[in-house]
Design a protein that fits this description.
heterodimer, A: alpha/beta, seven-stranded parallel β-sheet, 11 helices, B: 165 residues, alpha/beta, Rossmann fold, 15% strand
Chain lengths: 329, 165
Amino acid sequence: MAETGNVAPIASLDVVDRLIAGDRRALARAITLIENGSPQARQMLARLHAHGGHAHIVGFTGSPGAGKSTLVMQLARELRRRDQRVGVIAVDPSSPFTGGAILGDRIRMQELAGDPNVFIRSMASRGSLGGLAVATRDAVRALDAAGFDTVIIETVGAGQAEVEIVRAAQTVIVVTVPGMGDDIQAIKAGILEIADIFVVNKADRPGADQTAAELRMLLSLDEHRREREWRPPILKTNATTGEGVAALADQLAKHLASLRETGALASRSGRQAQSEMLALLQQAMMERIAATIAPDEWERLVQAVVERRSDPYSTADALARRIGLVPEA
Amino acid sequence: MAETNEQRKIRVLVAKPGLDGHDRGAKVIARALRDAGMEVIYTGIRQTPPMIVEAAIQEDVDAILMSILSGAHMAIFPKVMELLHENGVHDVLVMAGGILPDEDIPAIEAMGIKGNFGPGTPLSAIIDFVRANVSPERMSQELPPLAPTAGASFEATPAPAKEAQ
């Protein structure tokens, strides 16, 4: 271990250089810096952004136990057969009580071990809702800059509202299983609208055809699709045996081609960049507020609102003026 | 360090090397570490040394805990340590637990493997041990410089795009 006293501060630019040159440890370290919100991370990310933009970013979402991890493993194997380099970010939930997490997605991905052109990183959601961790998009940026052809994001098992993945991925795959009955109806509003490709996994089980038919019917009713040029295909897979996975890889390629042809890729990227910039601005504002208003003053302001000596609107207006967000009245 | 520990989650790889499939103990420990606020990457059973080291690298963990009951530790542990060193991984706390005969402990410790948690070790002792022994430098916001890597690269990327101004 290095002597603590005279260690030069970590050369994060060096980490970027090494990551781009193909050093797995530098890539892993970069993701750690990103995840921890380290001060060097921003400057590093600015450089990484310039090197990215080549990867196809694919999101997997769906109920817990639907087989996402196994399917990701099979898809990664299939893409390797097609000579693509594959990065995977697997997000699992953090405990809301202890902040700890068990990240078990690697268990299903053991068959990928030993292949230097596959990189898997597990990530805890760290209190973030929406199915992703705060750092997920930036971790994707690191994998993209490292030259992976496809970057797969596996969300935490998602229910109805975890649609963050739309802002992170170019192609969203929604995984469902037969026998969920009315649950298909339940997911209609949230997750159904974000799918570019539907997968009915565990298709060897009874009811797979019916589930596919129900999805087809729901889709035919869906008037609000973002891009009308692409009709989401409904695929049946068996992730354990790998059946249907080659067809899934074909559809991924087709979707990417369609996004490029129709210009939808550019508009999606625009929306994603916009939401990222807004999130960063929001964060900067929160930091400014925290730096300007001491906790005890904050406490007093809150208390005054609670006791109705003041109201939230004028308090917020006054604070916004104080941090320079709006000009003095 | 208590303060930085709170900002920085401790990431632990819990691995089951070798051919025995009894991972109840490993799972109990994984759960206990999670409940102590750590992020635990569990590999599943039947891990080879290269699989363990590769997972530790990709996940950039602060600690590795190997659980082994099969008696193959004197074959597996040296290989794991060798691969870690080959890959330039020097700042990760490596621990072991399971069935480790007393006469092997000095040799295991000489390899740089700590802890050696046998049956009956209280979970709190393991948690405290991890907290006390992870590298303090790894726990700081500014991580220490990355030691050079030898032979740990994926295929080199095609010439990088031009630098932003």
